Amino acid sequence: MIGSGDKLWDVLVAGGGPVGLYAAIEAARAGLDTAVLEARPGVLDKACGEGLMPAAVAALQRAGVRIQRKHCFAGIRYVEGGSCAEGRFNDGVGWGIRRTELHRALRERAGEVGVKILQHRVAEVSDDRDAVVVDGRRARYLIAADGLRSPLRRSLHLEAPPKYAPRYALRRHFRVQPWGPFVEVHWHDLGEAYVTPVASDEVGVALLFDDRSRTHGDGDFEVILARFPVLAARLAQATATSAVRGAGPCEQRSRRVVDGRVLLVGDAAGALDPITGEGLRLGFLASIAAVDAIVGGRVPQYETEWRRLTRRYWWMTSALLALRRSPLRPLMMPTLCHLPAVFDRILGELGEQPVALARV
Ligand SMILES: Cc1cc2nc3c(=O)[nH]c(=O)nc-3n(C[C@H](O)[C@H](O)[C@H](O)COP(=O)(O)OP(=O)(O)OC[C@H]3O[C@@H](n4cnc5c(N)ncnc54)[C@H](O)[C@@H]3O)c2cc1C
């Protein structure tokens, strides 16, 4: 048991957010004796767009995670001023899921497959000859899933500097019937608003922007929402169903994702920006790769595999961020409107089902 210093766990996971829980479920399903150390108790909420791309949906299904409350979406719609462009996934659907429901379902599944979840804030990690030592507890491997600001990434000196101007986020939910089968992205010179249907009578709204002074409460949410008049008008009569939550800076980088017996997954491994809504998809796929590497006795190769899995995300996100700031941005909507196949092609990539998901 954890706390009895002589037990050697196969895997300890630091951080019980969605990616840490997913990694623990995969490790336990692979027959590894696994515990999660999570600093906070109970079901956790977090600022997120809450749109799961088809490959993230497939990853949840593969792991046997049962979601009770969700809303399917068929693709993504971009809106700016009076024009809009739509792209559809060519394989499967996305799911809009409240973070609290996703976390509840992952915790439930983790319990079913024998993962121990312990409330503990990880403070110190060191190596002894044949184990990693986490605050006195020993394990063959540590999966670090402690989020965007990852204290572990910092303490292991794996941090790398950001390359772009910082961006921040606020999110809130509203009681309103979703008005289409899409995640809607509203564009503005100063940022974007993401609307994700999460139930038949509720949408989540995430606002992304670069004004650091606006990262606090309800007033800031209203000010930034007002940049998107079409959306603000739709929500004017809707009741807010959650508190405003903030996140950021969104860009966090790591130099490496493997350090001896420690493997970084999820936002702890690095994230550039949520603009493509891929964080959970990549976190789940990286978790599968990390567990495969542990089971196969080839942990150093996880580094290469993580880079392969995330390469397209880094360049596509960099390209979108560059486009946001470019004088060419006004051409984006007319191009997507006149060449819908381009949008479908991009979403086809997001909807792709990697081979790893086919394995049970
Ligand atoms: C505005 C916004 C919109 C987004 N939209 C989408 C979207 O639509 N679709 C999508 O797929 N992704 C989206 N993302 C990205 C997604 O939210 C993240 O990729 C995802 O939350 C990463 O999960 P995680 O488990 O790695 O980290 P987290 O969810 O941050 O979990 C980390 C956990 O580690 C715990 N922890 C921290 N330190 C310690 C410690 N020392 N000891 C123990 N525990 C610790 C924390 O308490 C927390 O529970 C969005 C992100 C933002 C900011």
Outline of this structure?
The chain has 360 residues and is an alpha+beta fold. It has helices at 18-29, 54-62, 99-112, 151-155, 218-225, 229-235, 279-295, 301-325, 332-338, 340-351, and strands at 8-14, 34-38, 51-52, 71-73, 75-80, 83-88, 94-96, 116-119, 125-128, 131-134, 137-144, 159-160, 168-175, 182-188, 191-199, 202-209, 239-240, 245-247, 253-254, 258-259, 262-264. The protein has one domain (8-163, 250-358): FAD/NAD(P)-binding domain.
Describe the fold and architecture.
With 360 residues, the chain is an alpha+beta fold. It has a single domain, classed as FAD/NAD(P)-binding domain (3-Layer(bba) Sandwich). Helices cover 32% and strands 27% of the residues. The chain has 10 helices and 21 strands. The strands form 4 sheets. Strands 1, 2, 8, 9, 10, 11, 20 and 21 form an 8-stranded mixed sheet that branches. Strands 5, 6, 13, 14, 15, 16, 17 and 18 form an 8-stranded mixed sheet that branches. Strand 9 and strand 10 form a beta hairpin. Helix 7 packs antiparallel against helix 8 and helix 9 crosses helix 10. The relative contact order is 0.19. The chain binds flavin-adenine dinucleotide. Flavin-adenine dinucleotide (FAD) binds next to helix 1, strand 2, strand 3, strand 13 and helix 7.
